[in-house]
Every structure is written in C-alpha cells, then in structure tokens.
Amino acid sequence: MPDEPGEAPGAAEAPPGERPRIRVDHPAVDPTSGDAIDGVALLTLDRPEALNALDTQTMLELVEALEGLDTDETCRCVVITGAGERAFAAGADIKEMAEATPVSLTVANSFARWERIRRVRVPIIAAVRGFALGGGCELAMACDMIVAADDAVFGQPEIRIGVIPGAGGTQRLTRALGKAKAMEVILTGRNLPALEAAEHGLITRLVTREQTLPEALRLAAEIAALPPLAVRAAKESVNRAFELSLEAGLEFEPATSSFSSAARTRRRACAPSWRSVRPTGRGAEVDGRHPHGNERRRPDHHARPARRAQRLRPSHEG
Ligand code: CAA
C-alpha cells in the first residue's frame, strides 16, 4: 500500500537521534519461557513518557510496520501493546493536536492511516493494560480482538476537549456496546473500566495485568498455528458481519468460503474422521499419519525440536 499523499517514502523512519516509536519483535518472544513464538509478531507502542500517545510519527511507524507484516508470509498474527506500566495509548497526541488546524488536518489526511490499518488482513490482537483512551481506544477497537487487564480503562474523552472521536470511535464503540451505553460513554467522555467494557462485549478476554501480554501472545500463537488462508478469510467474513447488512454478509460468506476451501490444508483437513485431525505445521494430520491414508508425511527439513512441534513452518499455503 503506498504512503498517503504528503507522506514521503520512508517517512516512518524515526527522526535522526530519536528512537523508533514502534518496537517490532518478529517473532515475538514468550515472556514466561523466553521462547520465540513462530508466526507471531509483537508491536509495542514505545512512548511511555507520553503514555504512548499516538503522534504522527507513531502512527506512521505503526501503519508501516503493520503493512510490512501483512505481506510477510512468516507473520500469521500480530499483537499490539503499549510500553510501560500505565497505558496502552492515551489517545492522539494532544500537544500535536493543539497546533493542528482544519486545513492542516485535511492536507495531512491523517485519518487515511486508520483506513490502512483497517485493510490489514492478518489478525491483530490488542493487549491492553492501563489507559486506552481516545485514539488509543479506537486503536484497540480497530484490532480484531482485545485482551485486557482488569485494571484497563477504556474511553472516548474527546468531548471534554471540544472534539469528537475521529478514528472510528463513534462507530465501533456503538457497534460493540450498543447505542444506549455508547451514547453515555461518548457524550459524557467518562472512562469505561475494563470489567464494565467486558460486560458489554468490548473485550475478548479479561485477565490480570501480569497475564495480559502472555495471554494475548498465547491466543495469537493458537491462531498462527491454523491454516492462514482460512484465518484471513474468516477475519474478513466476520468483519463483513460487523459492517454489512445480514443479507449482504450472507452473500459474501459463500464466496470467501469457496475460495478458502480450495486451499491444500483444507483438503487435507477434511479427513475421514475430522475429530482426530490435529493441526500441524503443514496443515493437518490424523493420528500422526497423513489424513488421506496410511502414508507418513514427507520428511520435514524444517522440523524443529519436539518442544516446538506444534509450531508452524510459515507459508501462505492455505
Ligand atoms: N497526548 C500527549 N501527551 C499525553 C497524552 C496525550 N493524549 N496523554 C498523556 N500525555 C502525557 C502528559 O502530557 C504527561 O507528560 P508530561 O509529564 O511531559 O506533561 C504524561 O503523558 C503523563 O500524563 P499525566 O501526567 O497527565 O498522567 P495522569 O496520571 O495525571 O493522567 C490521563 C493520565 C488521565 C490519561 C491523562 O494523561 C489524560 O487525560 N490524557 C489525555 C487523554 C485524552 O484526552 N485522550 C484523547 C485525546 S484526543 C484523541 O484521541 C483524538 C481523536 O480521536 C480524534
């Protein structure tokens, strides 16, 4: 995806002398075991001194990192988290916003970056600890799933500074919480504690602060071990359910389903007894045998030690 007008190629590089605002770990490392997690990338918003506020540079680096991973065959799921103890992201950078004018905002076309995030096909999980406010809440909601700490705080406080959410907040929060609750949260700008957000369906898994990143990475590893074409098709199809009428969504699903069913892994997985099929690095096998019969799988030159037996050899072969 080309950079938006006004964004020179390479614009996402950190200015000289400054550290990158986005840390990319691919493969991600399991914080408990220290093992690399095949197929999973971890992006860390790295401005803890500003509660990971999403200034232009951070957004540029984030979008570029996501688009890079989206076209990287070895990446099958992305986790986004915030550095430091206090925040996922406290919103758009208010200091930068103070200097913006309607004209500069229009020329910069910064909202187009959010559209680029929306178009990323690889699944994205937000691991949220602390504040996820304004643009931070919008970023979490732009992800496909949210794993949140029980001390996380969501909210769209923009109304308190005289603006309204501009990166999907009024739309996604309303779809997630329903009109009654979303109206209250957006019109008052009040914070939404994680427990309340979970009760209203915003959150996929609610865990302790310590468990947040490990749990998000575990979920990502589970998804990364599944046939990637089907995963991408499923993501797209669920998103259509979110965005389209039921009728239009039902028309979309069979086309995507037919396409993903052409993939090799799916053909293999449709073994005589699907209950005994378990996913492997190459797709699926039945009780250690190839699902089409008694033949054993070809020797895998990329085989990893037993501890990593469940991990995938990255490939876009469905
Ligand atoms: N932008 C830039 N800097 C921010 C920031 C933001 N959104 N949020 C926090 N910071 C900075 C603070 O300026 C402070 O830096 P300094 O020490 O250099 O002054 C540092 O992060 C720590 O913040 P606080 O001292 O304010 O910490 P606190 O514990 O007292 O309060 C907070 C935490 C309640 C999250 C408070 O920082 C806050 O209200 N932040 C702003 C939240 C907000 O309004 N977000 C929405 C932004 S608008 C938006 O996102 C636009 C959009 O969708 C269109």
Identify the CATH homologous superfamily of the largest domain.
Answer: 2-enoyl-CoA Hydratase, Chain A, domain 1
Which strand order does the major sheet show?
1-4-5-7-9-12
CATH class of the largest domain: Alpha Beta
Helix count from the secondary structure assignment = 12
What do these coordinates show?
The protein is of the alpha/beta class and 318 residues long. Helix content is 38%, strand content 16%. It contains twelve helices and 14 strands. The strands form four sheets. The protein has a six-stranded mixed beta sheet, sandwiched between helices. α1 (56-70) runs parallel beside α4 (111-118) and α6 packs across α7. The chain is globular, with a radius of gyration of 21 Å. Residues 272-318 have low confidence and may be disordered. Residues 50-51, 53, 90-95, 131, 133-135, 138, 157-158, 161, 163, 165-167, 169 line the site of acetoacetyl-coenzyme A (CAA).
Give a quick summary of the entry.
This protein has 318 residues and is α/β, with parallel strands linked by helices. The chain has helices at residues 56-70, 94-99, 102-108, 111-118, 135-142, 169-177, 179-188, 194-199, 212-224, 228-243, 246-261, 264-269, and strands at 22-25, 28-29, 36-37, 40-45, 77-82, 87-89, 124-128, 131-133, 145-149, 153-155, 192-193, 205-207, 277-280, 283-286.
